[in-house]
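// run 5 | inverse folding | seed 20
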């Protein structure tokens, strides 16, 4: 696939077409659009180098609220068929309420266990530790995500459906602070491209906005 075709698809999926003036304070509840582009570059059979860009639009889809992207190298290492590690670094610019911006450096340390298929379903359990460098205080956070998915191939039309639930434990707050439920579907577009579309519901009583409805997309490119 030509590189300009990849860039055009990435731009279309990442940038929604709504830009207007936003309210000056963050609401307790919001509807947002999360859009992500992932690029995987195989190093060998067990190791990939990963690069991620993400844009999020909130305040009921009217304004840019969050951007995060991988600046350093992210890796996915699969030592065994049912085990993978994917350490990564992200630099995050967050806009909780305009014109104020917040900045964060984040180190992600996930390990994922993948169970053998049961009646065609694949179950996985991701355990993720995050080190967050930001103002007013640095912190650690633990995230556990359980996911189930299944691939269907009716009449050569391949697609997959998935659902997951993720809980967050904040070591600074010493409590479970957030829950995210996701349901969606994905389809390979070519050997190099696949697209996920999903709905996510977040509940969080500590942050603003904390309770969020999300319509999201994820474009995956594998060279």
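// decoded
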């Amino acid at each position: 696939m030509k590189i300009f075709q990849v860039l055009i698809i990435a731009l279309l999926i990442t940038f929604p077409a709504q830009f207007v003036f936003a309210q000056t304070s963050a609401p307790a509840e919001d509807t947002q659009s999360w859009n992500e582009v992932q690029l995987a570059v195989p190093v060998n059979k067990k190791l990939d180098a990963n690069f991620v860009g993400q844009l999020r639009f909130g305040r009921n889809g009217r304004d840019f609220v969050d951007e995060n992207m991988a600046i350093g190298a992210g890796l996915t290492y699969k030592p065994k068929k049912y085990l993978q590690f994917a350490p990564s670094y992200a630099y995050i610019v967050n806009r909780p309420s305009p014109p104020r911006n917040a900045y964060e450096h984040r180190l992600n340390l996930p390990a994922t266990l993948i169970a053998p298929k049961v009646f065609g379903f694949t179950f996985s359990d991701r355990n993720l530790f995050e080190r967050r460098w930001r103002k007013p205080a640095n912190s650690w956070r633990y995230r556990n995500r359980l996911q189930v998915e299944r691939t269907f191939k009716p009449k050569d039309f391949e697609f997959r459906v998935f659902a997951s639930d993720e809980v967050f434990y904040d070591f600074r707050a010493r409590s479970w602070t957030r829950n995210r439920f996701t349901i969606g579907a994905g389809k390979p577009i070519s050997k190099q491209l696949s697209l996920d579309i999903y709905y996510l519901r977040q509940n969080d009583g500590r942050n603003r906005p904390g309770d969020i409805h999300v319509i999201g997309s994820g474009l995956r490119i594998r060279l």
